[in-house]
Amino acid sequence: MTILARWFGSRFAPDSIPARLRHDPLAIFSFLVVLTLILAAAFAPLLTSRAAEGLGEPNPVEKFAPPSAEHIFGADHLGRDLYARVLFGGRTSLAMGFLVVFVAVLIGTPLGAVAGYAGGWVDEIIMRVTDIALAFPPLLLAITIAAALGPSFTNAAIAIALTWWPWYTRIVRAQVVTLRERPFVESARIMGVNGFTIIVRHLLPNALSPVIVQATLDLGSAILTGAALSFLGLGVQPPTPDWGQLVSTGRVYFPDRWWYVTFPGLAIFAATLAFNLLGDSVQDANT
Fold this sequence. Notes:
The protein is built from 13 helices and no strands.
């Protein structure tokens, strides 16, 4: 059975990964939290009557309004409803996490597959470049790249992804090395199937399980790192909201305006914790 069949084709089998996750209370809880955050971000305009303020329109009359029935999370230094800002900030923060992991997988997976299948000097070059990339502290490297590219959502995502891909290269290479001598791969070679087809049709489908697990685990860290870059002014720029940016602006007014930091901080905490717990559950179900 291939990994894809194990994940999708046999999802109703009692030993399949989705079936195991359905019986894990922690997995269900973390999945519901993740789903709630995603839906809240996606349908933000429907969940607040102050969408314009959420997107950046100031309302000076209600500057620093404390949490109340009118402003559940209070208001910021420009009078904008913080609940709306957190909702719309979830769009950029969650999108940052998913984009970073997607780009990292897109870069790292093919490189790992080629290195593991080709071996020799190709493997040596790819893995030495990977080792060099891993020699630098990821956050420090991401900050350096983001500062060089300039502050923006796209540049921050690229900067983080360029520090993340080596892990996927290593994971996929290790899987492919163990698979390339298997009988089904040897049979494909004997039949004259080219290397590209062998990698795409035979090796990658059987090497995806640890990639899926790692990607799930990385989502929380990617959101946290994206928030860190925005906190430093290297990510999403005002007036577009982002959780890290909201915390950065709000810290100036802490502790007197405690709500300015607290609610965006809780959003970062909830997203990071939920994705990490979900990743741990997926990892346990995959063993």
